Structure formats: structure tokens, C-alpha cells
Amino acid sequence: MDPHLLRTFTTVARLASFSAAARELGYTQSAVSQHIAALEGDLRTDLLTRRPVAPTPAGARLLEHAGPLLLRLDAARADVLRLAAAPPGRVTLAVSPLSVGPRLLAALPASGVALRVLPAAEVPAAVATGGCDLGLVDGLAAASDPLRLPDVAPLTVTGVAEDPLAVLLPAGHPCAERAELRLDDLADARWIHAPDIVAPPPGSRTALRYRGTDLHGLCALAAAGHGLVLLPLRVARTAAAGVAVPLAATRLVHRSELLAPGTTTGAAAALALRLTAGSPYGT
Amino acid sequence: MDPHLLRTFTTVARLASFSAAARELGYTQSAVSQHIAALEGDLRTDLLTRRPVAPTPAGARLLEHAGPLLLRLDAARADVLRLAAAPPGRVTLAVSPLSVGPRLLAALPASGVALRVLPAAEVPAAVATGGCDLGLVDGLAAASDPLRLPDVAPLTVTGVAEDPLAVLLPAGHPCAERAELRLDDLADARWIHAPDIVAPPPGSRTALRYRGTDLHGLCALAAAGHGLVLLPLRVARTAAAGVAVPLAATRLVHRSELLAPGTTTGAAAALALRLTAGSPYGT
DNA sequence: CCCGGTTACGCTTGTCGTAAAGATT
DNA sequence: AATCTTTACGACAAGCGTAACCGGG
Fold it and tell me: How confident is the model over B8-58, as pLDDT tens digits?
């Protein structure tokens, strides 16, 4: 269960080829073959079928563990190295699309910050492994509850914003005239599932799958009637087309949180302070 | 960042001694010294002070990562091995003290089950690393919200019970006659902090620290006026002494959840079914 | 036969233990 | 002086690459 072996294993599984994995990792085919053999010998189970190369059930199970494991390992290394490293000159901020709000816009102009837009699910990893100095994530949660984030590393989590939710409807939709909606009212509706932007409401059915982090395109699709989208009211109102109807009688709110690694110094620490200053939302 | 090196590092840090760690791990002092040197060389930072042996700041940081990391590694190995292993003859169920409720008592008699009482924080690890076949954890959460559990491994989590909360007061307490209480009413009160049994209410101050999983002793202390305790109403009512007053106007409930590893077979699967059958509480 | 994974084998490197040296109280 | 960590060194094993081998399209 050497991490090197796990890394080779995940690479082989991802590329479905020993030789391609060898090229990517800078090994020879032979070494890759030996790595897999070592893992399989250690666990006394086949992990991959050859020809075609695909994970066995045991291999699939191991794959579920290997990703988070290697991530945590990178995070640990990055975190310790960060202690000794000089504070970054230019701060890189990982943001999920909907986490960009007034608070960030107000805090930004002060210094040279590079933004990096990532799906919410990837922001914690980006901060933990040192790719970015700070992160802003958003998601749906019960009011004043912190978001559920994958714990890749011990990160400092601070709430920075909470917004009520709204549904973005096409102009002609039967509910478009109403002052507010409940999720029950839309029980039969189809939603656009855009996992890189917003989690869909629990238990909803999917009309269309939308990949990528482009919010504008998503709103356009919703306005054109291809499916409903749940957005922070603040964002839904600014959509060029479509009608934003506030969501009532729900415990859910849209929440944004700042993620900071254990060590935050220099310009990154200053930005973190501006982002959280006077925030009414706790850890 | 070889796991072996991390393991000796954590052992040395825990025992504050190279030689003691060597004895525990079955190495020579020399090997331990080389392990630490290898880690320090790899990260280009001192991790431990010698004489006395104690973690440096960087070392302390690494320690925070090392524990969860090694746990996940064990969990991965155990999970894959469990796929091939024969279903256990006797099921071992890890339970946190307050997770033992009517549902478990009803499901138990059917077969030979061994119970293992652990602090709630250790139950997920016990299930993930294969020490136990199933786990029951409890904790405080917003109504119908799942508990926040450390994700040591991808476990199947199923809610099995929710209970209203109560405060256990000594007989003469000013609030003891009231029909119900709010947490605000007790803002100045001191609580017994028993981390292995119940999380204290958020923001409370501690009168006494109580270690161990013995519920009876905790109730006795509370009844004797050494501090308040927050318990599921069901449990508080059965306390031999003391007065149980229901907690009102809170989002918090006491919740129990069943943890199952990815692979659950035989008698363990049957028990899991009985425990969750007809449960109104979701994932 | 060609492509791709496996096996054999030699070389290099790494890891451990023994033992001597060094440091700290 | 005693205790505990570090360093030196030799033995052994592990890991990688080269190259030969094999099995399926």
C-alpha cells in the first residue's frame, strides 16, 4: 500500500492502459506491471482485468479510497512546506462560481489577486494542496449551518455570506407570476443539473446535465425553458432573462465560506481578514 | 512521506522518545533515527526537537495530518480485504454510549452480536478499519440533518433515531420545576464536559471534565449538582436521580446513525437491515 | 505479426542492524 | 557517568530498466 503503488494504480485505471500510465508517470511498462503485481500480491486479490484493462470489484473499491488518500498526502506535504515557504507575492484565490459575491468584490481591489474559478468540489483540494492560497466555496445548507465539505485537510472554515434562494424560471412559466414558491410546488418539475455550479434541490429530477462553470450559459438555458435552476436570489435577479422567484418555507440557504490553510501569511492573510471582517456567520 | 516514516514519526512524538518508539515498533533506535532524518530531509525542516523530544511547529502540523492519513490507509486496506473475506460468524457492533436505544434493543436478541462501547469519535474509525462490522454513532444535529462525521472512509450512513433533548438538573435547581427550558435560560450555567458521551451545547462553559463512557456516573454527578448535562430526553428520564427538563425552541436534536462499510454480508447485513427497517430518517 | 502485458535478470539504491561516536543532563 | 541520539559501515532486499517472452487480435 505504498503511495507510489497507489498512484500507479489510479493512473493505470484512469488511462485503462499499463503503457500509457508508464509514459505519464515516467516509468517503463515493466515497472508499472511490477507495481500492480505488488499491490495485487499484497492484497491477495486481482485489482485489474487485463485486456481490456479495467478495475475488478476489489479494484473499484480501492480506487474509491486511493483518490482521497493521495490528496490528503499531497495536502500534508504542502501544508508543512508552506510553514517554511515565503509568503506568496501574488495571492491566488480559488473560487467556486457562485461564491463570487459583494463581499469579495469589495475586498478585491486592494491588491494583486489572481482568481481561479473551480467547481466547488475542487476548491478544498486546491487550497489544501497549496495550488491556491485561499478558497471561497459555496453550497446549500440549513441556515447558519456550515457547509459539508470533504475533509482533505484541517482547513480553517469561516462563513462569509448567506443568501436566500430563488428559482430561475422561463418567462412564460405558470409559476412565474407568483411572489414566492415552495419546493413542493415544483415537485414535478425538471431541473438542470449543473454539478460544477449548484447542487440541485434534494430529490429533484434532471432534465439536462450541464458541465462547466459558466453561469451565464446556465441562466440562458433556464430562461429558455430547458429546466429550472436553483440560485442565490441575488444572482438570479441579475440574470439577463428569466424570472427569479424567491423560495419560501425552506431551511435551505445559499452559503459561502472562506477556506484557509493552517498557515496563512502576508497578503493572503490580509485578504482573508478583509473577506471575513464583521461577518455575522460563524465557523 | 512514506507511511512507514509517518508511523514512526507519530509514535516517536506520542512517546516523546526515539528508543521507546523503536521498542514499540520492533525497530532499532538507529532505524527510528534514520526514519526521522529521512522525513526531515525530505521536507527540509526539523520536525522534532531532541532532548527533550517534542514536535516543532512544523512537526505539530504534520502530526495533525499523519493520524487521519494512517487511519484512511488502514481503512482502505481493510475495506478491500473485507471484499474477499468470509462473512464474520459473530457480528461486532461498535456503539457510542448514547446510541444504544430502543431500536437496537429490539433488533438485538435475534443473533450472537458482540457490542463494543466506544467514544462516538472512534466509532467511524473502528468500522472503517474493520475492527467492527457495523457502528452506531450518536450526536447533536439540526433536525433531520445527518451527523457530521469524520470521513475516514466511504461509509454508508443511515439515520436510525432522532430524540428531543433534555437537560438533566439536580433536584433543587431553580429551573427544575419548569416544564421546559431554552438554552438561553441556562446561559450562565456550567456544564459537565464529557466528550466521550455527549457534545456540550455550543458555547457553554465547563464546570467539570468527565472522561470515559460510563453514563451512569455522569448522571450521578449531574444529579449531585456538579454541572448540567444535555441528554436525549429518553435517556434523561431514566436517570435514577435528577430532574429531566425538555429543551424547547432549539433546532438541535439527538440523532443516532448506523455506519456500515461498503461491503456488508451475512449476519452483519441482516442486523443492519433490522436496525434500519422502517426508519423515517434518511441517509 | 503487432501490440501490450509479463517474466527474467542484473544493477543500483535504499533500508536495516551492529557498533562506535557524540551530546546532554 | 549514564542515557539517549547520531553516524559509519556492511549485509541484504527492494525497485527499476533492459530484454526476452507470451498471449490475443
Answer: 999 999 999 999 999 999 999 999 999 999 999 999 999 999 888 999 999
pLDDT digits (tens, 9 = 90+) for A173-211: 888 888 888 888 888 888 999 999 998 887 788 889 999
A47 grid coordinates: 485489482
DSSP state of A146: P
CA closest to C1' of D4 belongs to B19
E strand residue ranges, chain A: 48-49, 54-55, 91-95, 113-117, 134-142, 156-163, 165-169, 190-193, 205-209, 229-232, 243-246, 252-260
pLDDT digits (tens, 9 = 90+) for B156-171: 999 999 999 999 988 8
d(C-alpha A151, C-alpha A206), whole Å: 28
Handedness of CA B173, B176, B177, B178 (dihedral sign): positive
A65 and B154 within 8 Å at the Cβ level: the answer is: yes
Strands (DSSP E) along B164-217, which ranges? Answer: 165-169, 190-193, 205-209
* Average confidence (pLDDT) over B90-105: 91
Phi and psi (nearest 5°) for B274? -65, -35
Give this prediction's pTM. Answer: 0.88
d(CA B128, CA B137): 13
A31 nearest nucleotide via C1' and CA: D16
